[in-house]
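User: Could you go from structure to sequence for me? I need the amino acid at each position, not a summary. Structure tokens:
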């Protein structure tokens, strides 16, 4: 009898250990990487086989049997299993939790309980949640060929159908035959006469099956050619190296990606392209489709689990050679990966905020090292960590310093909104921006306006007592949305009507404060000749809403696009000559050591959307601190100066990349109990910190102290020896506590 260790696929936080099961003789062929069905804790569930348990176990009779096997081959190959083990260790999560990331869908097994007439549980029926789309396909048989040769004047429709099947030289689907004029009745008759055969085949869905015929290609600049040559050598000679491709906005990074992808495909290898936002996916897909027809798959969160399963199937079976997707695409089952590209690598969207709190860049680097292939990190504003690795020669630094056609960078105007208020302009739009929006519309050009706040008004307050209407489940103010005339929590989704009176003092003097994208949209729409379109989280709930909005805007039907940060990244619309950024310096005041970096990146990326065609660009940054150095460096797109100054500041404070952070968060419905547990952990870490350079902060409430009725209390460790604390926590009882979560290298430290 063989025994295997199984990681249980249940969303239970403290299942760090694996469990041993016996393999019945009929399953003697399975090993590490297989998905199986096992009994666990009075239920039947999915598990992942992670290795052999040996055959000389004590009391072998106590081990339960594996009940069933999922699939006809192991899901995890050696590389995927190794990557999952690394992720579990580095990010301090259970192995099953890490392995679950490689499965398309949160749980692929649906359990239906079956009871007897007395209500007692008999067993579970197991059903795969991931529905494979199937279709009937038809082929001519030998008897059909004979009938066709004999011919018949009475069965013209049948003969015509047989002729179509014969000429096809392959099986044809019912849909293809219907398009050729073959009816279902004729097919039934052919089957009855055994003149054709029918089989059921899987249909691999492709939501991005667009036929782009034009291969948009340009002569490479000298800098682009040098970048392509450097990475191509690593592709051809199959060695691992990480390249930081730093190029000003509009410098043609995508053209470099396309040429490198062509090189990898010529070597018979697969390519992974990561993008930070769904909003960017459609545009880069179109560029790649114009070059590489029929070999591209796309994956993102708006696809169903079954659609994601189809994508992963195509990647595993090499039916797609290029995968474009958001961060979760890094877990696709590649068998022949030759190149990884991460576009806008600085973007915080690559960091998963929910457990396990992985960073796609680090996972991609680990997989690239395993496959011994190059990794390309592209950005106009690289993360400070990547820039540091480049100047320390850990990454090879490639630069694109100009735009391919020699277009100048856009002219940037900084508008002081304090002066606007002094001059009695209470609009969210400065007079300069209003004038430029009208001029742009009149000239037949287009504009993008960025405001990184959703909704209509950012909070609702009583003017008599100062009471702000808060979410009853989260420690945040409710945001008023004009659509639906309701207040909404952006953390838990709770919605409630606007109160007619203050819940505290019963005053009816309720007023809306602050400005979100909906309010700004209304003010812009009031300008003459302006037709405005909005793109934010509220307007992009449907699967292809991002693409539809961008297509409508690119068509010229609207001349102004307003939205949150999703309008500021990656878009290349030649007719956009004006970009306005509202409250451009608001991010600088966030209580986060990365606040300046995030603000600089967002402003630079937004400004870069202007003037990408033949017409010069104009950018207006509306600020309340017109002397701020970060704003001025962003206006000049002077990343190197900003990065060097930011590195000096971080070195002085011992912040990343000079040290690392580890955040421990306690979630609890009881605030006092949450603080008590966090205090215990802080004291424990203080003891570990002796004779190290570490600093332990906390416990302190999260910047949002309560979410979904759960209080959040944090403890933060900063050290150059962070592994000491990871090891200590891993061996402590806190690892197994259900309400204690670890975040290694957190993006949000509060």
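Assistant: Here is the amino acid at each position, in order:
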């Amino acid at each position: 009898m063989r025994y295997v260790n199984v990681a249980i696929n249940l969303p239970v936080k403290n299942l760090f250990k694996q469990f041993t099961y016996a393999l019945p003789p009929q399953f003697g062929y399975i090993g590490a990487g297989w998905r199986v069905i096992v009994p666990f804790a009075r239920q039947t569930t999915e598990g992942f086989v992670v290795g052999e348990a040996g055959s000389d176990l004590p009391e072998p009779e106590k081990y339960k049997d594996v009940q069933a096997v999922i699939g006809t081959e192991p899901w995890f190959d050696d590389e995927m299993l190794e990557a999952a083990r690394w992720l579990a260790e580095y990010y301090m999560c259970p192995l099953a939790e890490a392995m679950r990331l490689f499965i398309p869908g949160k749980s692929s097994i649906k359990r239906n309980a079956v009871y007897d007439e007395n209500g007692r549980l008999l067993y579970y029926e197991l059903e795969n949640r991931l529905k494979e789309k199937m279709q009937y396909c038809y082929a001519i048989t030998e008897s059909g060929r004979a009938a066709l040769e004999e011919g018949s004047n009475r069965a013209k429709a049948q003969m015509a159908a047989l002729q179509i099947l014969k000429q096809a030289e392959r099986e044809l689907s019912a849909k293809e035959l219907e398009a050729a004029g073959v009816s279902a009745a004729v097919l039934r008759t052919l089957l009855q006469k055994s003149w054709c055969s029918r089989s059921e085949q899987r249909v691999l869905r492709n939501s991005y099956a667009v036929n782009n015929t034009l291969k948009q290609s340009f002569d490479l600049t000298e800098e682009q050619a040098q970048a392509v040559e450097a990475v191509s050598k690593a592709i051809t000679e199959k060695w691992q190296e990480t390249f930081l491709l730093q190029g000003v906005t509009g410098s043609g990074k995508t053209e470099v990606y396309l040429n490198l992808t062509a090189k990898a495909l010529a070597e018979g290898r697969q390519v992974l392209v990561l993008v930070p936002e769904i909003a960017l996916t459609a545009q880069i897909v179109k560029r790649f489709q114009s070059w590489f027809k029929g070999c591209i798959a796309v994956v993102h969160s708006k696809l169903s689990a079954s659609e994601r399963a189809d994508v992963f199937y195509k990647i595993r079976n090499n039916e797609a050679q290029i995968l474009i997707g958001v961060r979760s695409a890094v877990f696709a089952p590649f068998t022949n990966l030759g190149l990884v590209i991460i576009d806008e690598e600085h973007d915080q969207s690559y960091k998963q905020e929910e457990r396990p709190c992985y960073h796609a860049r680090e996972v991609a680097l680990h997989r690239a090292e395993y496959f011994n292939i190059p990794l390309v990190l592209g950005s106009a504003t690289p993360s400070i960590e990547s820039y540091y690795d480049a100047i320390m020669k850990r990454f090879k630094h490639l630069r694109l310093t100009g735009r391919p056609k020699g277009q100048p960078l856009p002219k940037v105007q900084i508008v002081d909104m304090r002066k606007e208020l002094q001059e009695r302009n209470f609009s969210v739009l400065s007079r300069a921006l209003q004038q430029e929006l009208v001029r742009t519309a009149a000239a037949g050009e287009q504009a993008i306006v960025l405001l990184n706040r959703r909704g209509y008004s950012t909070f609702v307050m009583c003017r008599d007592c100062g009471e702000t209407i808060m979410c009853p489940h989260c420690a945040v103010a409710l945001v008023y949305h004009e659509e639906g005339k309701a207040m909404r929590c952006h953390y838990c989704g709770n919605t409630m009507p606007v109160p007619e009176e203050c819940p505290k003092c019963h005053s009816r003097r309720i007023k809306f404060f602050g400005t979100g994208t909906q309010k700004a949209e209304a003010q812009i729409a009031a300008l003459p000749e302006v037709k405005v379109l909005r793109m934010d989280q509220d307007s992009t709930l449907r699967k292809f809403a991002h693409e539809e909005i961008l297509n409508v805007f690119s068509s010229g039907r609207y001349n102004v696009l307003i939205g949150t940060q999703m309008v500021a990244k990656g878009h290349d619309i030649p007719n956009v000559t004006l970009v306005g950024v509202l409250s451009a310096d608001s991010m600088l005041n966030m209580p986060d050591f990365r606040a300046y970096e995030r603000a600089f990146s967002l402003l630079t990326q937004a400004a870069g959307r202007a003037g990408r065609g033949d017409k010069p660009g104009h950018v207006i940054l509306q600020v309340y601190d017109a002397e701020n150095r970060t704003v001025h460096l962003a206006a000049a797109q002077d990343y190197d100066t900003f990065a060097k100054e930011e590195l000096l500041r971080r070195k002085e404070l011992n912040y990343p990349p000079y040290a690392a952070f580890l955040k421990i968060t306690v979630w609890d419905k009881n605030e006092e109990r949450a603080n008590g547990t966090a205090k215990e952990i802080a004291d424990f870490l203080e003891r570990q910190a002796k004779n190290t350079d570490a600093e332990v902060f906390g416990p302190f409430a999260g910047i949002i102290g309560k979410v979904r009725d759960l209080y959040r209390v944090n403890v933060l460790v900063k050290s150059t020896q962070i592994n000491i604390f990871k090891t200590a926590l891993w061996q402590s009882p806190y690892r197994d506590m259900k309400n204690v979560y670890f975040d290694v290298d957190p993006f949000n430290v509060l």
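One structural detail worth keeping in mind: The chain has a mean pLDDT of 86.
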